[in-house]
Amino acid sequence: MKEEILIKPLNYTEEELVQIVELIRSNLDPEFTTEFFKWKHLENPFGKSYGLVAWSGNTIVGLRVFMFWEFIRNGKILRSIRPVDTVVDSNYRGRGLFKKLTLQGLENCKGQYDFIFNTPNNNSLPGYLKMGWEKSPNSSTFRVGVINPFQTKPHLLRKELDTLPVLNDSGEALETNKTKNYLKWRYVDPKYKIYTFDKGVIVFSITRIKGIKSFIVYELLGEKEYFNDLLLVVARRFNAYLVYYYNSKDLHDLRLLTSFERKEAVVVLKENEEVSADQLNFSMGDLEGTL
């Protein structure tokens, strides 16, 4: 006879956190830390995450956490929920815990969100589709582009992030509400660099693609006609003329020498009367596996 599995809300006690981190390390990520879990789920400026844990006796054998997220459209805030961090102990798989934790969590959070979205990996995507979620037909692709090093030097004035006006001007598009507090929280890791100017903000990190020095763009915010200038500033500063980016609606018109597709982004959502897939406009930072 199988032992009873009880599903209870996550209270973020020290006892729970110790077991959760060990569960994730043993089944998903050996490098996972308590500090990262707290940053992601307790310090999120959109609110503390709601979580469910599956208990077998005094042992946590399953976890599902739901991040709250804010989008903005025409100045109106829409609240979303983002199911993340699912893990089930290898000895308890095949019992439907993934589905049970997900459906119960969404039910418990009803009334606190306007729509649901997620960016699953290849392992979890089939589970979402079985539960009736839809793969967004509007998802774009991750691309690598070559920046023209002979462009005219841009005239941009460096600024502090705190001195910049509100950066959101989403119009009809539905985008993450990228406030200054959000940017400081999301990109607190020192691997990210934030360059702020009078005309906009670029968030990036330095990397290598096929051994060639390159940079990844997570955010381009501000006046779109200056996005190419922001890229050129970074390219010249680090002598890196390959850029890896997500080809969002805002970046379709980048003036690159050439670009090529690396892979397709996968986004799933449950649509409602407030939101349709063709309105969503993500950045690389929205879709990064960190979240």
Automatic annotation (TrEMBL):
<protein>
    <submittedName>
        <fullName>Acetyltransferase (GNAT) domain-containing protein</fullName>
    </submittedName>
</protein>
<dbReference type="GO" id="GO:0016747">
    <property type="term" value="F:acyltransferase activity, transferring groups other than amino-acyl groups"/>
</dbReference>
<dbReference type="InterPro" id="IPR016181">
    <property type="entry name" value="Acyl_CoA_acyltransferase"/>
</dbReference>
<keyword id="KW-0808">Transferase</keyword>
<dbReference type="InterPro" id="IPR000182">
    <property type="entry name" value="GNAT_dom"/>
</dbReference>
<feature type="domain" description="N-acetyltransferase">
    <location>
        <begin position="5"/>
        <end position="162"/>
    </location>
</feature>
<dbReference type="Pfam" id="PF13527">
    <property type="entry name" value="Acetyltransf_9"/>
</dbReference>
